[in-house]
Amino acid sequence: MVGILIISHGAFGEALIQAAGHMLGKPLQGVVQLKVTARDEPEALLLRARELIGRLDEGQGVLIMVDMFGATPGNITARLLAAGKVEGISGANLPMLVRALTYRTSPLAVVVDKAMSGGREGVVHMNTDCCRGPG
């Protein structure tokens, strides 16, 4: 099973994990978050992220999801990437996580593709795309 690490600002990652567990109706295994605060040292976060990857990787690899590209979570992730073993995607959102969880017994490349499509398809302008209100 592909491990999932969410690196995000504040409690965002924990909130995603709790919401996904609620939606799927069960506690999630093999999914952890690394919270980034203004007081954290990037090098210490990098070491902690490496530890978490080691715990999560059961041999199928780890997907790292970050909240925002170009910020500390994304910069840390960029230093951890290893094609086919540790993959990273930014713009983490709930549809992305749920899709990754749904396909996590697939190969890592499939989980990455499914997570990214879930993230993209989960962004909908409801006024024009699906839910036109009265008049």
Structure summarized in a few sentences:
With 135 residues, the chain is an alpha/beta fold.
Helix content: 40-55%
* Major sheet details: 4 strands, parallel
Give the low-pLDDT segments: none
Structural class: alpha/beta
The amount of beta strand, in percent, is: 15-25%
Shape: globular
Compute the number of helices: 6
Average pLDDT reading: 95
Give the termini distance in whole angstroms: 49 Å
Strand order of the largest sheet: 2-1-3-4
Radius of gyration: 15 Å
**Secondary-structure element order, N to C:** EHEHEHEHHH
What's the number of extended β-strand segments? 4
Structural overview:
The protein is α/β, with parallel strands linked by helices and 135 residues long. The protein has 6 helices and 4 strands, in the order βαβαβαβααα. Strands 2-1-3-4 form a 4-stranded parallel sheet, sandwiched between helices. Helix 4 (94-102) runs antiparallel to helix 5. It starts with a strand and ends in a 6-residue tail after the last helix.
Question: Can you tag this structure with a few keywords?
Answer:
17% strand, 135 residues, 46% helix, alpha/beta, 4-stranded parallel beta sheet
Spell out the blueprint of helices and strands:
Layout: E1 3-9, H1 12-24, E2 31-36, H2 42-56, E3 62-66, H3 72-78, E4 86-90, H4 94-102, H5 108-121, H6 126-129
Parallel strand pairs: 1-2, 1-3, 3-4
Helix pairs in contact: 4-5
